[in-house]
Design goal:
Blueprint: H1 4-34, H2 55-58, H3 63-68, H4 77-89, H5 93-110, H6 127-131, H7 143-156, H8 161-169, H9 176-195, H10 211-233, H11 247-256, H12 266-280, E1 293-294, E2 297-298, H13 299-308, H14 315-325, H15 342-360, E3 371-374, E4 380-383, H16 385-394, H17 401-409
Antiparallel strand pairs: 1-2, 3-4
Region (Disordered): 38-60
Organism: Streptomyces galilaeus
Pfam family, one: HA
Length: 415
């Protein structure tokens, strides 16, 4: 017969055994909840992420997770709580976790998070899966759609700050317009690294990207921003600043090349830069067309055009050419004779016709007749007077009354 003391001890032992059994049952149930559910035997069943037929393997517990669920070993309570919250209480977080994992690998491989909308993680049999280090658990994950959804959720204000921080740490670009800007900026950097400047011609490309057109649009946006700033300075109203280049983006381009948006034509600035590089290399200033060609530009021809067109340059351009390149304007002897206008040509032919009339007494000039005259500069000139007279007669309807009167005075017959 048990004594009262022995009975109390046995009761405490049974209570302890019940509590221990309860903890074991609870642990077993937690393990069952955390473990993946049985694979569906119905073909075509899709997972939460929209992937078909690969949910069982992609959601399989990792080695650290299996170690964490061994309740017979010590574990970090905070880590265990976070795991249960992710896998048991809030299983929808699993799609986010896989997206972050895929985004991290993509950023590591491509250097950015500019994921095409149709992009999916390479499958297990894709060679890229092994070369780029994609785990089998992410095979087929729709990373492009996941990234687009993240932008949409953030725009609606439905994304937690911690998730925003995770994506921004990976270089997330929230706006589609910002994505397009970053793509163009990356192409501009690549083109500048190869060519030494950012004065690309309109048809320039970088790895298939039309960087020349992109820069042209950026310059137009920069000039619009400058016009808006001038209007504000003058106190004039500004209807809209849409399409104007921001100070931040202008600074990004100036860090690549400070002269990317000159006040004069880009072609002029590009040739100036190439001539300067030519001189910095210890070469002589090219002065003849065809002498030096760089990046498709004839530097000698450009130098000639600068010297001959000196008066058409701005003060800043003249200073750059003279002080930086050592170019001087052409002398009067070097300048070509001005081109004759149509009025000048008519006047010289009329002088020849008048000379013929004064010598012959009429203006019945043979068709192939050549009349020679000597100008004030003592230069002898030849005029196809016969053809010119016939042309004036056939164009009588378009001649001014003054010219018709002049020709009639020297014996011109109109019929």
């Amino acid at each position: 017969m048990l004594t009262s003391r022995a009975y109390d001890g046995l009761a405490k032992l049974l209570e302890a055994l019940r509590a221990h059994d309860a903890r074991i049952v609870c642990a077993q149930r937690l393990e069952q909840l955390a473990e993946q559910q049985a694979r569906s035997h119905v073909r075509g069943v899709q997972s939460r992420s929209g992937e078909e037929g690969e949910g069982a393997e992609s959601d399989r517990l990792s080695v650290p997770a299996r170690q964490l669920l061994k309740f017979s070993t010590p574990r970090d309570p905070a880590q265990l709580a976070a795991f249960i919250n992710l896998r048991v209480l809030n299983p929808e977080h699993q799609h986010w976790r896989r997206g972050i994992e895929a985004a991290t690998i993509y950023t590591r491989e491509h250097g950015d998070l500019k994921v095409p909308f149709t992009y999916r993680v390479p499958g297990r049999h894709d060679p890229k899966a092994e070369t780029e280090g994609w785990p089998a658990t992410l095979a087929g994950f729709p990373l492009g759609q996941w990234t687009a959804d993240a932008r949409r959720f953030n725009a609606r204000g439905d994304m937690d700050t911690d998730r925003i921080a995770q994506l921004e740490k990976l270089g997330m670009i929230w706006s589609h317009f910002d994505v397009a800007w970053e793509e163009g900026l990356a192409a501009a950097r690549g083109w500048a690294e190869e060519n030494g400047h950012l004065l690309a011609p309109l048809d320039a490309t970088c790895q298939g990207y039309r960087v020349g057109t992109w820069l042209k649009n950026a310059r137009a946006a920069a000039r619009k921003a400058q016009e808006i700033e001038q209007r504000r300075t003058q106190g004039l109203p500004v209807e809209s600043s849409a399409g104007a280049l921001s100070d931040e983006r202008r600074q990004q381009l100036e860090e690549i090349d400070p002269s990317w948006c000159p006040s004069w034509p880009v072609t002029w600035q590009r040739c100036f830069h190439l001539v300067r590089l030519h001189l910095d290399a210890g070469e002589a200033l090219p002065t003849e067309a065809g002498q030096v060609l760089r990046q498709g530009e004839d530097l000698g021809r450009w130098v000639q055009s600068v010297r001959l067109g000196w008066d058409q340059l701005t003060t800043a351009q003249q200073w750059l050419c003279e002080q930086v390149l050592g170019i001087e304007p052409a002398t009067e002897d070097e300048k070509p004779l001005p081109r004759r206008t149509q009025a000048d040509k008519w006047a010289m032919n009329y002088t020849a016709a008048k000379q013929f009339y004064e010598r012959e007494g009429h203006l019945r000039v043979p068709r192939k007749h050549i009349e020679r005259t000597v100008g004030e500069d003592q230069e002898e000139r030849e005029h196809k007077l016969g053809a010119w007279i016939n042309n004036q007669r056939s164009r009588a309807a378009t001649l001014t009354p003054e010219r018709m009167e002049q020709l009639s005075a020297i014996g011109m017959r109109w019929t």
